[in-house]
């Protein structure tokens, strides 16, 4: 999957592949360099594709399965299961818009930086939550302010 732009770079070394499946961003390299940006772009695109595939599977299953259970208890159980599944899909639908927003931030060169402080978001946070828009500290402060305003 890794590709080289040319057969040999100046100095006789092969270029570092951007699409390396074994690559993990490291603090030892420049923050949001081309390789990191491509890594997170791929991660976001794959996540979105997985969500869309699951949604398609759920829809296909809904269209082929019927809720004509002979027993009232079985029917209620099936309806509850479907309700939970549909709620999950709705949350994932909202997640897709956040993934799209993160991809836009990548295109605009703003990905990986806190929207409040402008500081880099830690690689560990981006790895765990690639749609993050704030550093942990800014997020905690934001949540404390929300809690205070709800309590008033």
3D structure, described in words:
It is a single chain. Helix 1 packs antiparallel against helix 2 (72-108). Helix content is 59%, strand content 0%. With 152 residues, it is mainly α. The N and C termini lie far apart (55 Å).
The largest sheet is: none
The total of beta strands comes to 0
**Quaternary state of the chains:** single chain
Radius of gyration: 22 Å
Q: Which secondary-structure class do the elements indicate?
A: mainly alpha
Integer average pLDDT: 83
Strand content: under 5%
Whole-Å distance between the termini?
55 Å
- Helix count from the secondary structure assignment: 4
Query: Runs with pLDDT <50, length 5+?
Result: 1-18
Shape by Cα distribution = flat
Please provide the ordered H/E string of secondary-structure elements. HHHH
| Fraction of helical residues | 55-70%
What's this model, at a glance?
With 152 residues, this protein is mainly α. The chain has four helices and no strands. It is 59% helix and 0% strand.
List the helices and strands and how they pair.
Elements: H1 34-64, H2 72-108, H3 123-128, H4 136-151
Helix pairs in contact: 1-2
Q: Characteristics of this structure?
A:
flat, mainly alpha, 152 residues, single chain
